[in-house]
Records
---
Amino acid sequence: MLDEVRKGVEQHGDYVDFFAADAPASGAFRCSGCGYGVTVKTSLPHCPMCGGTTWAQAASQPQHASPGS
Ligand SMILES: [Zn+2]
């Protein structure tokens, strides 16, 4: 007999900022609905793929330093 306690899955592991369409923003974002990526300089659009209006900020600049010179 299984006595497994299933805990609710919490998604606090990776904190992600979400932005709504038409919000002023700049940088790389990814649609929270379909994952479509955009890079904006002024404000966020409606997703051209799924029409979504929620965007998650994407990492646009790798933190890895280039080896060598
Ligand atoms: Zn989308």
Note: The pocket of zinc ion is lined by residues 31, 33-34, 36, 47, 49-50, 52 (CB under 6 Å).
---
Amino acid sequence: MTQRRYQDDSYATEFESNVVSVSKQGDKYATILEGTLFYPESGGQPCDTGSIQGFAIASVIEDGGDILHLSSGEPPFAPGDVVKVKIDWARRFTNMQQHTGQHILSQAFVSVLDAKTVSSRLGIEHSTVDVSKLDLTWDDMEKVEQLSNSIVYENREVKVYQAKASEVSGLRAKKAPEREVLRVVEVDGFDKSPCGGTHCLRTGEVGLIKILRWEKVRDTTRAEFVCGALAEADYFWKSRFIVELAQQQTTKDTSIPRQVFDLYDSHKELRRQVESLRSELLTYEIAEIETHAREISGTRVISAYLESRSAADIKDIALRLTEKGNTVALLAGGTERVHIVFSRSEDVPADMRKLIAAACELVDGKGGGKPAVCQGGGKHAGRVREALEESERLLDIHLREHDT
Ligand SMILES: [Zn+2]
């Protein structure tokens, strides 16, 4: 059973202890000490990182009553050695801020909205609480945040003590405690909850508590939040982003949300206009292309290589050309890579699949589709005209076959 020294003093960063055992567990080595400062990953809180006698420890877990310090390399110490344990204080303190902040936030949800915390997870980037109430609004969240931060500003004491479950009143717990003696964490005059984690001594150390967003998860609302150092980092990038946008738009920070929504609306309108102009332009182009129509076995055939056109344009033109009856469109476009679209009117008795396969083979590619519309392409642009001529020849044969 490892002595959990972090529970006596969550501010201690260095400590000496005896090595109890070093063993291989899968592809990792596990070191057990008599006592440790490393908080193991548990209760939804990330573990501490740091070193033992200068040897890096990246992951710490619980195994029954023992705490395992895991490493991928073999540790340079043996059972009986006295070693110096050192934890990464910046990471520990950030975790303490999130953890103490979560206690305050959970009680604020109860006080303001009568919403109980069903579960919580503390993370390296952000944390979450799931509360038993749905359809929460920005207004609700603002009130919860305001109460939480007023508890921070009052710099209340955070007391940790052992007590019998039956003798503690007003305990905020997810379920009835199983143990007889509890480790109670009390935010003076505000919240009492059973917890084995690491916490700040006073609420002022938590810093700003900020709810970032929330969503419905099953029958709860999951609120994502950050405290202290993480809130500072979040505020920094968001503030910088808004200020830079405002400078670029030569406007005030507070005008940015309205401007972004306006830009979005005008972008949608411009896209609609561009689409309408493109379609109008295509109408003229189609009329011009139609002047090159030829007749093959009594069918109007339009065969063209429109170099600068995209695959989508080619298809659009082909479909519009064959809206009229008795028409076949054999179109190609593109210079680096060739796109080919063959389309026919409903009343033309020819199968485009037979034509596209041969055409695409000539440009070193593949194609396919339905009897009335096929598309494909290839990489040999130099043979496009040859491919279109071959398609006309095949079409002529197919149409003649049908006539006889
Ligand atoms: Zn706690």
Note: The two ends are 95 Å apart (CA to CA).
